[in-house]
Design goal:
The structure is a homodimer of 466-residue chains.
Chain A (H helix, E strand, L loop, with lengths): L7 H11 L4 E2 L2 H4 L16 E3 L4 H14 L3 E4 L16 E4 L6 E5 L4 E4 L5 H9 L3 E2 L12 H7 L6 H4 L6 E7 L5 E3 L13 H5 L8 E8 L1 E2 L3 E9 L2 H13 L6 E6 H10 L13 E9 L2 H15 L8 E2 L3 H12 L1 H8 L2 E7 L5 H15 L2 E7 L4 E7 L5 H21 L18 H4 L2 H14 L12
Parallel strand pairs in A: 2-4, 3-4
Antiparallel strand pairs in A: 1-2, 5-6, 6-10, 7-11, 8-9, 8-10, 12-14, 12-15, 13-14, 13-17, 16-18, 17-18
Helix pairs in contact in A: 8-13, 9-12, 13-14
């Protein structure tokens, strides 16, 4: 595909649509839009457009579609697979100014909002009226709902409440040709033709630009119990997770953290220091939520009894809100802490929950074989293990040549275990070279047919996923 | 599209693949495969094939694809939109012999099964090990899981637990060209390219044939409270539903039944007689489920207090298992009872929950305008109202000419209320003429592009949805 280089004529048109206030052309101002939270990649866009209305999105897209100008939609740029990187140049379409919660419908337990709304802001707004929007990516303080839709984002609570996918009722989208449409209806059930809502969710901005989101809300669970459980063996920690669910207990979070994850966090931010006994190799951070504290305590006791078989060192309850906040902050900061420590690659592996021990052992075996150090953590209840491979002492040649081979073998192991190569981060650009591990030529044909149907000129987030 | 008429040569080929035991050619034996539970429609297939393996499905499809022979996949034929009717003739591919539960994975809370497994059989099999598969269409005693996937089927429990869509992790499918592929992975999270699993769910057998299904299971809730609540006004009943959810209570079922629905059931089966006071116009059938009876009773009291504002006549608790069974049987038999009473058309309207009173009033206003009688019931908690329009005293001309106009106006009302024309029954053939109420030409273009991607020769369930 030969894309068009953006000229002053194009800029003049864009300016006529969105006004000068919503175009960024200066290098230093464009610079932040060339990266996201994925490793240290950077691609400079020709210009950044920050539309404020659906109509503007439509006009910009239709123009770019005719003129073959690549458009990379962008939320907060907190993605971890390079999905928001303008790898073909062209326009970055940043939706951050479309950031209104249009409506919270307390009768129907729904909210309607724009894609630039920050996840945490939505959480707080609905909590204020006793409602709950569960999906909570680690970056919830800055990530935007449009990006959450694009990646089918999860978070710790997904284990009990499901991912973004489970809370989207309807989307307003704009196609590359400028057509504006609703993908569904504002209903809890929908069996009216091919489900376009679910096709857009997780499509990483390659099919359409999301301009409005209708989410389902549920009643807020005001009470919770949080416990930190250290183990002398990471395998034991993972096995304990399976036992919890097998006992019929569904925690509202069940996070796994290797020893090194918490050490790196404490180095990164001494305020987030969590005491580690010398023999601790891994932790589970387990939360139970509900309406009745006495019931939660009963359930916690049952849980503790259940995991005794896996020899936890201790069970440390967070007694105060401050302790809870510290533990959650430490958990949420692991990604940043790892990034601060070393160049790294983060793999978003996911397998059926009971296969976690085998996955983890596989990671360490690959580390031994290829000489890399890994820091693993993630959503153990979902079998979703974030594997951070550190550059650390590896040579550039090892990093460039050997690590991709190791990653491929890691993904092959995921497939063997009936898992996949991304649970919640998406494919973007960094996992794209590995898609053939999961996908057959038939899959790629179908993906190409779907892409062609929505975006025949391949202007929307080109070079991603396929 | 010019389809090929099936000849003895084709039959010889099919026989070589599936053996004589799995081909039905005799008229009287084929006859049942020409209908489903939709009104009184009948279309005769040229032959019925009952494959026993994925490989057979693949070979039959690939052959039909090359020879342009229409193939209509079929489960139990309990559908209500004509999705399983072979309206273009050709082959009916009945999956009922692929009826094995391959595996119940208690470690991962998953089951793997073939499409011919009956919903209720799956429920019972997983209940035996303390697990729960929630989706429960009214026809659960006979409907098959492949059909449930095809229609994204719901049922009473969807209000708390979600529909079939929420429980499908992965599918094995066969494309018209014979290619066999998995749509996803056996994981709780999945962000690995376009979500083919969710695209197949609800696609009514028009894109691929489902040959294996991996479902998510949850722990079984052993306790429940069931109450029948009569109202003097259907509007009050609907308004009470909104109040229940607004109070933070999520019942495991919240069904609405008009007076006439229960009268028809009692006429149809006197054993299912439910006492009706003369002033009862509608009922809610409300179930709460959980692990602790004392908590459920507390919640029931809170619920009863909440609905007092809407003047229920009474709150009748089902005290015994026999009473519960009677009430559920009565509810599940309404469809059959209506069918027994009169020719009818069933519309599967769905709106945001709080819009139910307006929808119901709209139905009655249309009835007054066009002279039809309607019996309404359905999943009030989901805003999913089954509107049964009875032929009763209408002339054939009214039935043929006026009722489709009334249905169109009903669907336009659904759209106005942010709802849609099918919540759980699908579009099939009977709702197809009304799809333009919901869909723009852009939607139809996308649907056509998706269809073309999977089924370029249009052999798979042709004439359905679009």
């Amino acid at each position: 595909m030969n894309y068009t280089t953006i000229t002053t004529e194009h800029i003049t048109y864009f300016t006529s649509i969105v006004s000068e206030l919503n175009i960024i052309l200066k290098e230093e101002q464009k610079h932040p839009y060339g990266k996201d939270h994925t490793e240290d990649l950077h691609y400079m866009p020709a210009c950044v457009i920050t539309p404020t209305t659906t109509q503007q999105v439509s006009l910009v897209l239709a123009y770019c579609n005719i003129h073959l100008i690549p458009v990379t939609p962008r939320g907060a740029g907190t993605g971890l697979s390079g999905g928001a990187l303008p790898i073909m140049g062209g326009v970055v379409l940043s939706l951050h100014k479309m950031n209104k919660i249009i409506n919270i419908d307390e009768d129907n337990l729904q909210a309607t909002l724009q894609p630039g709304v920050i996840n945490y802001d939505l959480q707080q707004a609905v909590k204020a009226v006793g409602l709950f929007y569960p999906p909570d990516p680690a970056s919830w303080g800055s990530c935007m709902m449009g990006g959450n839709v694009a990646h089918a984002s999860g978070g710790p609570r997904a284990v009990k409440y499901g991912t973004t996918r489970d809370y989207i009722l309807n989307l307003e989208i704009v196609l590359p040709n400028g057509d504006i449409l609703n993908t569904g209806a504002n209903t809890l059930k929908y069996s009216t033709g091919y489900n376009l809502t679910h096709l857009i969710i997780g499509s990483e901005g390659t099919l359409a630009v999301v301009t409005k989101i209708v989410v389902k809300l549920i009643p807020y669970n005001p009470k919770n119990v949080l416990m930190l459980v250290p183990f002398t063996s990471a395998t034991d920690a993972c096995k304990a997770v399976t036992s919890i669910f097998k006992a019929g207990i569904i925690p509202s979070a069940c996070e796994f953290m290797e020893r090194d994850a918490l050490i790196l966090v404490a180095q990164y931010d001494p305020l987030l220091h969590v005491v580690l006994t010398p023999d601790t190799q891994a932790h589970l951070l387990i939360e139970l939520d509900g309406h009745h504290m006495d019931l939660l305590q009963q359930q916690a006791e049952q849980l503790v009894k259940t995991i005794q078989a896996h020899s936890p060192i201790d069970v440390l309850y967070a007694d105060t809100e401050a302790q809870k906040e510290l533990l959650w902050k430490a958990r949420r900061k692991i990604g940043e802490a790892v990034k601060h420590q070393s160049a790294y690659k983060e793999e978003d592996t996911v397998v059926p929950r009971a296969a976690m021990p085998e996955l983890l052992q596989g990671v360490k075996a690959l580390g031994a074989k290829y000489g890399f150090k890994s820091v693993c953590y993630g959503h153990a209840g979902d079998g979703n293990l974030h594997v951070n491979i550190l550059k650390d002492n590896l040579t550039d040649s090892q990093w460039t040549n050997d690590i991709p081979i190791a990653i491929r073998q890691l993904f092959e192991l995921c497939k063997q275990l009936n898992g996949t190569i991304s649970g919640e981060h998406g494919i973007g650009v960094v996992q794209k070279p590995y898609m053939d591990v999961m996908m057959t030529p038939t899959h790629f044909n179908i993906f190409a047919g779907i892409k062609r149907t929505f975006d025949p000129n391949n202007i929307l987030n080109p070079g991603k996923i396929i």
